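Mods, move this if it's the wrong board.
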Amino acid sequence: MRKFLTALLVAGVVGALPVKPASSATILINGTPVSKLYVDQEGRLYLTPGPGRKPVEIEVPSQGQGGGVPLVSKDKKIKIGGVAYIHYDVDLGKPTHKNAFKLTRDYVELRGYFNDKDYFRTTFDVKQSNSVDGGSYVFRAKYAYVYFHNVLPYTGVEVGLAHRPWIDWEEHHGWLHRDVEETLIENKKGAHLINSADLGADFKGKYGIASWEFGIFNGEGYHGEESSEHFGKSIEARLSLNLFDGFTLSGHTAHNFDYKGQNMDRHIYQVHAVYNNPYVLLAAQYIWDKDDYYNSDDKNQHGYSVNGDLKLKPFTGYPLGIFGRYDKWDTDNGGDDTKKHFVYGVFYNLNSHVRFTLAQDKLIAGTNSGSSDSNTLMSVLQVKW
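Not the wrong board. Structure tokens:
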């Protein structure tokens, strides 16, 4: 009777996966590996030991024993996925209203798991390049790192072409519209100080109300060759505190020595706050940047960004919303050297894989800011798979 109940329970809760011999089998119940079951005097089965419960043996027949319903998954796993941003953009800044379909990003991600928590990740980034065959789409590495969990207390590490501590975090907590525009610290229409990935080691962890990341990197970014002299590395860190439900306060800093071989050290300091609930998301940040030149005057850039989402589903029943963002960046070039950047629009979540967005992206650039005015109307499909 016990063996019958055991076989019935296992057959009902595990998926149809390839069979392995019993000596190396892993039974998954609701995704949790189970090596033992326990039965009480009335024949009821349990996942944990307790008073009056006795262990029962789990046996999974191999394929050579008659096949049957496959019950066992292999420990090693491969996951494949990706995301694409498909645009139709109209240039409102020119009388001709030039317009075009664009593929602004196409990420393809592969992960190979050594166990439930440690893995190697490769992410390829497909992007159009004017320098290749007059506009071909090129395939380049965005991430390529090995991840080990708990190398320090409550902290894992990515080693290789890894995340840097800030941008990925902001894109998952404060600015949720990367398909439309980059964050202030990365965007060429804003600060354009760092990008999201680089070769190095990134330690990341979480405990209680706190999460953190810190690491050391080449400093050039994932599409720049290491060209610095001497130490020439970037030391970066983030600390975030979830002070109460939905509200997180963060600090971020990066110190890039001999930045891209430009005879300067770059020092970045940032504060960020975000409040997120089922109805609204509100975020604000301020960034200071000091470029310490070896043979000329220093440059002190600074600016801020505020953004918000109004989630209309609780009010209308439809999965749509309104978002807006305003950036202001002072380039410290003297004179009319500020950049004012506006992004706003509406979005509709067709399902968990597809989101449609209609947005306007407008830059008002000072004559001495190093940028030019732009005004673009965007219709965007974000596809996750």
